[in-house]
Amino acid sequence: MSTTSFVVNLVRILYVLVPAALAFEPYRYLIISAPRLSKVVYMKIGDRGNTRPLIDSGLKSPQGLAVDQKRQKLYVTDPDSRKIFSYSLVFNNGVLLTDGKQSVAAQNVEARWVTVDGVGTIFFTDERNNLIQKVSADKILRGDPTPTVLYSGISVSQVSAPGGIAADNFHLFWTNKAVGTLVGSVVKGFETPPETNVAASVKAIAKNAVKVYGVCLSMNNVFYTDSESYVYAVKKTGGAIAEVTSKLLHPRGCSWDGDGTVYIADKGGNAVYSFPGNMHTLTPMKLTKTVDFEDAFGVAVISASLRAQLALTLAFLVLLHVFA
User: What is the rounded distance in angstroms from the CA atom of residue 159 to the CA atom of residue 252?
Assistant: First the structure.
C-alpha cells in the first residue's frame, strides 16, 4: 500500500469513527471498600448485583475512598496501617484494574476519610488527634507522604473528632463525630486557611446531629450520614436541612458521580444505595439499591477516560493499516 493510499484510507475511517467516539459515553465504575474483609471491589454501573475484586491484598482495614478523575488515581485510607495508599487505575474494555503498584500518599496518619481536589491535593481527617490535614499535589508527585496540618481541634473548636471530608477546589467540608450539635455536624472551611484568625474563617453549616460520618458534594448540595439510619442534605451555603432518608442501617460513605446520582454505603445493611443528587429543593428521596455488598463502608465513582479510549482506537487503526 502506498503512503498516499494509506493516508487517504485512514482519513476516511477517522471521518466515520471520530464522531462516534465523541458520542461514546464512557463506562462509570462504582468502587466500594470493606474494612472487615480487607479489600476493595468495583462494579460497572449498570451491571446490577455484580462486583469484581479491585484490591484484595496489601490492605488491613480499607475505609475512605477518593478518586482523582483527571489523573486516574484511587486513594484508600487504611487506619490500621497508619497510611493512605494510592493506586493508578487502568481501564480495559469495560474492566477496571490497578497497575499493580501500591504507593504511600500519606504516612503516620490514622485517617479514615480522604478527598482529592482538582489539582491533585489530598485532604483527610485524623479523628484521634483532632486534625484536618493534607498532602499537596507537589508532594505527591515527588513521592513525599509527609502531611501538613490545616486545622487543629486545639485552636479550632469546629474540629471535633472529624469524620468524612469533601473538597470543591475552594472549600473543605468535614463532619464531626463528637458534639456536632454544639460545634457543627458539618463544617465548612477553606482549602487554604488564612494566616490569621483561622477559627473565624470556619463555619458550621449544620448542627442537627451529634455524630456524623460520611459527607459528599453535588453541584450545590452537601449530603451527610449520621451514626444510625439517616442521610441529610443542606446547601453548600447552609440554611434549611432536609432529611433525605431514615431507612438505612448505619450509613457511612457517600459519593456523587459528577452527573446526577449520589451513592450511599450502608454498612449495617450490607449494600450500596443511590438517589438523584442534583435536587434544587432539598427533600426526602426514594433510594434504589445498587448492589448488595458485605460491610460496605467507602464509595467512590470514576469514569473511563474518553481520551484514552480514543487514543487506543487510533493506535489500533494505525497498526491495522501498517500491517495490512
Answer: 19
